[in-house]
Fold these 2 entries.
Entry 1:
Amino acid sequence: MGLLSATQTITRYRVEGSLSENPTDQVREGLNKQIITNIDNEAQDMAVGWTSFEAPFTPNFDDASFQVGTHYAFGLRIDKKSIPSKVVKQQVAITSAKRLAESDREFLSKNEKSEIKEHVINVLTIRIPPVPNTFDVVWQYEEQEVWFFSTQKAANEEFETLFNKSFSGLKLIRLFPYTQADLTLSLSNEERDRLSAITPENFTE
Amino acid sequence: MLDIAVLYNKYKFLGQEFLTWLWFSLENTPDSLTDEEGIPILMTVGNRIVLEVIREESTVESVTIKGDNADLSEGIVAIRKGALVTEMSLIYKKNDLAWTFTLKGENFNITGLKTPETPPLESKDEVEGAIIDKLYLASEVVNLVGNLFRIFIRLRISEGWRDETVPAIKRWLTA
């Protein structure tokens, strides 16, 4: 659930590496580089890109609206076209019947069948609109932290991939217990060694 | 640092031990749980705890206890049999304000976070203020968990863990 929702869901990331002297310009450039593209009327079945926090369907990073105080707020949008398998089956059956009637044959070859299926999927993909899913992102750059407002595995993976593509020189590390201890608790080298040597505790003996 | 996926799997138990310790501390030594300024916090276990134990051949047995005022003794029995807390809902109170959320031990994902209410958005001009307000309120929980985890890690890598904390947890489990 997003930042402004009644309930929120947060996955935290650490950003290793430094932004340039003008971080806003660097972030803007990275966002524009991978801004979401429109796949309406295209044969593409999926698009992943950055979008605006406030206007997810009309993304624009040219103004400073993505900067909120000392944070950057934007969104990850995943547009996906899903064609119901029954629709594919129906269209393949109709096209196959037409092809048989035209060629006055009783059977189609394996190759013809697979060509028809490919063609049907292609035509349907162009015709149907994608379903958009938007996930909020807040980059707290002074704290070197990014919050991604979803715990869905696939969405987190798309987010990590897109972030790395957009901001070269920066490394995004997910904050789970070990990385949180190692990267955010300012442990000494000796404490870090002791942490890496620990093994599961047994409370049952 | 080792590969992230390797670290994730190798130390998966760390967050689960943290939640198990947190439950023990909330029940037995609540004053030892403090915020960043060292002030004891007001926190209670919410209405859901999930415990898991890995048996032979990676078979996972899990116990979920849910419901307001649920009897949590079944959870203690599960820990006694080798389980750890893998997920726990928590209620945090500060200055008459309340936060509820669920923390997952394996990855520290925060889900179902309900912060104190903020005024409804009435115009687009208010979005920036709303973002700052919500972030501030969510940060309270993130910082709090971070501080509790700091207390746990310092203890976990100290001599006090084996000498005092583990025996105290075992006494709690068998009381």
Entry 2:
Amino acid sequence: MGARLWLSGTWLGLLALAALFAPWVAPHDPLAQDLFLGRLPPFWMDGAEPGYWLGTDSLGRDVLSRMIHGARIALMVALIAGTLTCLIGATLGVLAGFYRGWSDRIISRLVDIWMAFPPVLFAILLIAVLGPGLLSIILAIVIIDWTRFARVIRAETLSQGAMDYVASAQVAGRTRFSTMIAEILPNILPTVIALLTLEMGIAVIVEAILSFVNLSISTDSPTWGGMIAEGRTSVHQAWWVLVFPLFTLFLTVLSFSQLGEGLKDRFDPVLR
Amino acid sequence: MSGFLDIKGLTLRLRGGPTILRSVSLRVASGKVHGLVGESGAGKSTIGKAVLGTLPRAIEITGGEIWLDGVNLLALPPRERRRRIGATAALIPQDPLTALNPSKRIGPQITRRLIDILGWSKADANRRARDILDEVHIPDVARVMRSYPHELSGGMRQRVLIASAFAAEPKLIVADEPTTALDVTVQKQILRLINEMRARHGTALLFVTHDLGVVSKVCNSLSVLYAGKVVEEAQMHRFFTQPIHPYSRALLAATPTYLDPDGSLQPVPAEVIQEVETEVHQHAQRAGYDV
């Protein structure tokens, strides 16, 4: 048991360490250009230059170093946007599911209206209004994705609220608020955790998409999405500029979702 | 004689909808068992919920009084009512599978009420929980206290719930079809256990069920409910020997016997249904509420 928890945890842990200590870990300056070292292949191919493990892009910038620095932004967006989205969405979901009545009507209607907007267009529109930058990306993710939490957590809270143990707690004199916090919340926590890590993966993807269309932060900070966009133009001459960041992105998003599933199993006493 | 629980003319209805209980009156004497029988949807469980203050918000109380231990619950402010109910009454729920919080260990689930409502110390509450679990014949009490609900069988969980209901020495327990979700062999043990505990602790019991066989074993008196109206209230002995209301007679006739399971299954005749419907309707018109 727990293989996926360990595998995904190890990958994310390594990534976090690399991001945290990027200036010391990265072998080169991620922005340093050297046109004589342009399009160097990765280390196992002919023509590779020692020290440039994963090759260089068309401007001679080290791919590995750029990926390590890109991880900083990816993880920062994942953590901050994921947590904020979770807090806001889950809180509204629990309130709607537990108190029902008018609070449910307002929140559910809001979610319905929200979800009728096409999310990517919505994000691009928001960035256009807010202006590019890290803060804008985080805000855009929170504003768009809270509905995901609100819907799922509301349904989960509704089904928990119908259980007899909630009635028993009320008979035993618990107030409604304390019933919600002490009785229901522990039972929806596994779902919240699974959703939270899933959301972190989604945040990484959204950040990549936005930097792919050049709406992320300024071009001199390397991002995975930006690297993919640049690599796309020279994919026939230098596939590694595109493939390595893409694969890292893929592994990271997969790890987040697997970490969530693994943690959910850990936290859920019934599945444990 | 006034009862320990005394419901007078309780009338409930769905907010902006039909009436659910029509002027229901019943009383449960101290230390006695009162059965509440009727078909599904007759309003049996709703009465239990009204007494314990767990009615869904969609249902509103439009009239009547619920006297518990000399206090009219419906006249109290919500906070005071909740405290009062928590200190004097408890619930044995229907489905033992959902009645325990799945993410908490058994021990704290029993002691919670003792600590919260009665203000006991943690050590006292734990000792009490161990004693009461022992009383409901649970083997290896220490292990069960540390277990999560899903680690116990359905029958064990129902024992835990019974223990939990009796832990704070309530004077009234509402048992809402406590054996319905269990299989037949366990049902008998659980019934015997409830009876034994009740007799030892002198607790009054409002026993909600649709099983007249169960009623005959545990109750002193009963009310028969049809469409939210009490059609007959009787002492146990008299009810089984000479039921007065035709619907009661029909219900008794519909109880299968062990020796002739097929032949003894008599559906309630259409005329009787017609008769009760008319009676309920007339009552509704007299009292002036919509049906």
